[in-house]
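Input set for joint prediction.
Command: fold jointly, output tokens.
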Amino acid sequence: MKYKKMIGIGLLLIGLLLAEQVLAHTPLCSCYDNGDGTVTCEGGFSDGSSAAGVQMRVENTDGKELIKGKMDKDSEFTFKKPSGEYKVIFDGGEGHAVEIKSKDIAK
Amino acid sequence: MKKVIGLFIGLMVLVQAVPALAHFQMIYTPEAALVKGGKIPLVLVFTHPFEAGHTMNMGKPEQFFVVTSRGENKPKKTDLLGTLKPIIWTSLTNSGAAWETTYSARGGDHVFCLIPEPYWEEGEGFYIKQNTKIIINVGGEPGAWMEPVGLPTEIVPLAKPYDRWTGNVFQGQVLFNGKPVPGAEIEIEYMNHEPLLDRRAFAQAAKAEAPQDAFVLQTIFADANGIFTFGIPKAGWWGFAALGLDPDYTYKGKKCSRDAVIWIKAVDMK
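tokens >
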């Protein structure tokens, strides 16, 4: 009986923690043209938590993967600007992906 | 008779101790919460913002810098003093020496900090030095807005300064050398005339009208922990100035009021 109660409370707590993580933050990613043939993307979450290690992809308009990488320890990802139109995908997992089109990248 | 003279002297001292009329050091940029990064304009003006009144001549600032931070990254300080250009700012009654610059902002928090040259206030017979900061954010990802920058006199926000709706409260803590100042006196003014950056002047039109002089400059006191709370009644920029945080401070052999100023911007819910 005692154990069941504890397991119940434990599950409840885990549930709360999971819910917190899902609800409390929105993924954010902005990219900037560095003016030297490279682009830097800054990633993060609206609650200020780090995006270090998040998968990054650069694709052409047909969805072909051009560049693949990860957010570094400062939640930044710099890549060589491909020729033509492209898009950058910040892949923070389900419900946490952000897509940025090349035409929206600030100089 | 002696009593009367004593009382009179007492009154004189009290009158003298009343702080100078609502001088506010401004660091101004139109938006506190930007959707996208890019170049933003900044102006430094020392004025009476509610009335867009007498604008004082600023000397060359001692320090002007920005502390940027994004997410959990370590805040980074960048000197901006060398980028400042002298301008003349026109108020509704005069014009005064001011400064301007532009800044390229990327994502996160940008805390702009100004340590001005003390200003000699002839009418009061003392110097005024208002260490000032504003905090802007690009993109919504917060950084270290809640951390003290380490200015000698500083107001540290306890509420995110760029996410306030009109009607929210703003809370801050007044610090002197990093320690809370119990009971600090805080003056509050509304930026009642829009700064027109292209004309380097305040707009003629006022956004609000004060029914009586007391409303031009509101006054509150911090609590025992140096914390103050203010309900924001109208959208726009609000300035908070904690006065005389170092009563013994002097500059060039004269008394100098060492103040801390912060500006925040509230936005209407629409």
